[in-house]
Specification:
A 6-stranded mixed beta sheet has the order 2-7-6-5-4-3, with helices on both faces. Strands 8-9-12-11 form a 4-stranded antiparallel beta sheet, with helices on one face. Helix 6 (173-176) links the parallel strand 5 and strand 6. The protein is of the alpha/beta class. The protein has helices spanning 30-38, 50-60, 73-87, 102-111, 141-146, 173-176, 185-188, 207-215, 224-233, 236-262, 287-300, 324-336, and strands at 17-18, 67-70, 94-95, 124-128, 153-157, 180-183, 197-200, 266-267, 274-278, 303-304, 306-307, 317-320.
Length: 354
């Protein structure tokens, strides 16, 4: 089975300077925190989530019955993969981008769905924009949506859309009506510890898939805190706060990239609040071992980056945009080195060997 790999806390606890996770670097939205503190955890939520689904439907301008709640994005990924496997027939297969979130492939494997490299042969297709780990737009997405057949299901993962820093979505309104849109607000709200997500169904869904998807849903997928999070999310005040966050993050991102490039790091283009970067020392013979060793030493030093090997990008790391204090800690460590780590700085003139 494929191993589940994520950024964020690990066996060593919460990193003092965490650049491995894509939660909002600006922190948690105070109004959402207050809503969580006031959530009534003494009772079950309404099993039909009537008020929440109505609020989300109105927020997105879609019918209430098109809102499908999920315990998390990963839970929905597992559920729709199994639903497709059970309804699409013996030739069902899954297509995903070359570099993608590992849970797409894990869910396909668990459901017994083979992967295909041909979108036209897939029963289930995945897209993510801005993408992870690269944080880029999907240039071929409109063409794939236009070519969809009624027997195909495409899920657009929009986990990072609320913190898009440049550009506009690749799909127009009409194209979005043809795909499932998966939303995970806890990242944008800076509250990744609260598990809650939802999907907006396409305007037309095959009845067999729709029935199976609902039959596979757990009872009460959201607890009281998940409900409170999504209720806070679908409000004008949240939109205003996120707009301010995006303005702040653009400045922080430019500062962070400038600092890395001054140390001769390569930073790849990104429209998101994270990007992929690499150091020249990680190329060539022994480069991957150096990368592994240096990331482990950084982690012991309180700094965590996300190795991109599991995304199919060996020799690179995904790095979240961080507040200036964390940037300064990272850059100082890269410049001067840490115990048991050599050549952390890519610039030969400043390289420290210990």
């Amino acid at each position: 089975m494929l191993t589940s790999l994520h950024g964020g806390p690990d066996a060593m606890g919460v990193p003092r300077h965490d650049l491995s996770s894509n939660g909002n670097p600006c922190g948690a939205w105070p109004a959402a925190l207050q809503a969580l503190q006031q959530a009534d955890a003494r009772h079950y939520p309404d099993p039909a989530y009537t008020a929440l689904r109505r609020q989300l439907g109105a927020w997105h301008g879609v019918a209430t019955d098109r809102i499908v709640l999920a315990a998390s994005a990963s839970e929905f990924i597992q559920r729709i993969s199994l639903a497709v496997a059970l309804t699409a027939g013996p030739d069902a297969a899954v297509w995903q981008p070359a570099h993608a979130y590992g849970d797409y492939a894990r869910a396909a494997q668990a459901a017994g769905l083979p992967m295909t490299d041909a979108p036209q042969r897939a029963s289930l297709l995945w897209a993510c924009e801005p993408s992870s780990p690269l944080g880029q737009a999907d240039a071929g997405l409109p063409q794939r949506v236009a070519a969809l057949r009624s027997s195909q299901t495409l899920v657009l993962d929009q986990a990072y859309e609320p913190l898009r820093l440049d550009g506009a979505p690749s799909l127009d309104g009409a194209a979005q009506e043809r795909v499932w849109r998966l939303l995970t607000p806890n990242k944008a709200l800076g509250l990744t510890g609260v598990r809650a997500a939802y999907a907006i169904a396409p305007r037309v869904v095959a009845p067999a898939l729709w029935a199976r998807l609902h039959a596979l849903a757990p009872s009460w997928p959201l607890g009281a805190h998940g409900v409170a999070l999504l209720q806070a999310w679908a409000t004008p005040g949240c939109g205003t706060w996120l707009q301010a966050c995006r303005a702040t993050l653009r400045g922080w991102k430019a500062r962070q990239i400038e600092g890395l490039r001054a140390l001769d790091w390569r930073v790849e283009p990104s429209i998101a609040h994270f990007f992929v970067a690499s150091c020249a020392d990680w190329a060539g013979d022994g480069g991957l071992l150096k990368l592994e060793t240096e990331l482990a030493a950084l982690r012991r030093h309180g700094i965590k980056l996300r190795d991109c090997a599991s995304f199919g990008l060996p020799g690179r790391v995904r790095m979240a945009v961080a507040a200036p204090a964390t940037q300064d800690a990272l850059l100082a460590t890269l410049r001067h080195g840490v115990p048991a780590v050599s050549a952390l700085d890519c610039s030969p003139a400043r390289r420290v060997v210990q």
